[in-house]
Amino acid sequence: MSDSGALRVAADVHAEVGESPSWDARAGVLRFVDVHPGIVYRYDPADGSLTSCEVGQEVGAVIVREAGGIVVAARDGIGVVDESTGGFELIAPIELDRPGSRLNDAKCDPAGRLWAGTMAFELTPGAGSLYRILPDHTVARIVPEISVSNGLGWSPDGDRMYYIDTMDGGVDVFDYDLAAGEVSNRRRLVSFEESDGIPDGLAVDAEGHVWVVLFGGGCVRRYSPEGRLVDRLDLPVSQPTCVAFGGDDLGDLYITTATYRLTAVQLAEQPLAGATLVCRPGVTGTPVCAFGG
CB-based burial of residue 251 (10 Å sphere; 0-12 exposed, 13-18 middle, 19+ buried)? Predict the structure, then answer.
C-alpha cells in the first residue's frame, strides 16, 4: 500500500481532535469537525478552499442530509446546522438528562437511518449507549452500556454493521436487517493489543474490507470481512482519529488526526498532527449515505 510519503495535506487546521470526515458527493466537498470547540469544517478539493462554522457546543460528527444541508451529532443530540451562520437547531435530543455526556461518532445506514453513540466526558466505563434515529426523528436506545461509542460502518450489501466501542479494544460486527434497521448476533471481528493503539473510527471499502484507525498507534489497518489483516498505512502522526473515502471516484482516503494532549516536543516531532490528510490507497469506498431526516 501507499506509505506515508504518498500522503498529502488536505487541511492543516491543527485540530485538537479532528474527527468525522464525511464526503458530500452532491457538493463535491469533504466535511469534518474539531470536537471540543464545536467547529465544522468544509473543504473543497477542487480549489483547496476551507471554510468553517462554530455551532456552540461539542460536535462528534457531521452528516449530510437527503433534503440538503447537514446535521451534526452534538453534545445535546442531533441538530441541523446552518453552515453560513453556525446556527444550530436541535431536532432529536439525546441524553439531555445526562449533562456529563455527549454524542460522539455517527453515520447513516443505506436506508437513511442515523446511528449515533454517546460517551461520558470523563470516559466513565459503560456510561454511553448506541442510538438509532429515524428520519422522523424518533430516537431509540439500541445498545446500552457503551464506554466510548466510535466507528460505524456497513458492508456493501448492507447485511453487516461494524462497530467500535473504543475502550473495549476491538471491532465488533452485527448482523444487520436493513429493511427493519435492526441489529443482532454481536461478535468480535478484530481485537487489539494495548501496544497497537486504541481503535477509533472506521470505514468500509467497495470490496467489503474494513479500514480501522488506531489512535496512539499512528496507522490505519485494513481487515478482510473475516477479520484478517491484509494491509496497513503508516502515518507521520501518532493520533489518527477517523477515516473516510471521498473524491469523484471515491478513491481518495481522508484521515483526520489530533493534537490531543501532545507535548511541545511531540508536536515539534509531528508537525502534521491535527491536520486532515489524504492519499490514494488503490481501492474505492462505498457511497456515503445521507440522513433521511
Answer: middle
User: Are the C-beta atoms of residues 74 and 88 closer than 8 Å to each other?
Assistant: yes
CA dist 175 and 169 (Å) reads: 20
Strand partners of residue 182:
177
For 128-152, how does the pLDDT look when each residue is reduced to its tens digit (9 = 90+)? 999 999 999 999 999 999 999 999 9
Cβ–Cβ < 8 Å for 272, 11: no
User: Nearest-CA neighbor of 158 among 290, 289, 246, 284?
Assistant: 289
For domain 4-279, give the CATH superfamily: TolB, C-terminal domain (2.120.10.30)
Give pLDDT < 50 ranges for the chain: 2-5
Q: Would you call 200 a catalytic residue per the annotation? A: yes
Q: Tens of pLDDT along 15-64? A: 999 999 999 999 999 999 999 999 999 999 999 999 999 999 999 999 99
Q: What is the pTM of this model?
A: 0.97
Residue 176: alpha-carbon gap to chain centroid: 19
| 225, burial (CB in 10 Å: exposed 0-12, middle 13-18, buried 19+) | middle
d(CA 163, CA 106) in angstroms, rounded, equals: 11
Instruction: From the candidates 24, 200, 205, 252, give the one annotated as an active-site residue.
Output: 200
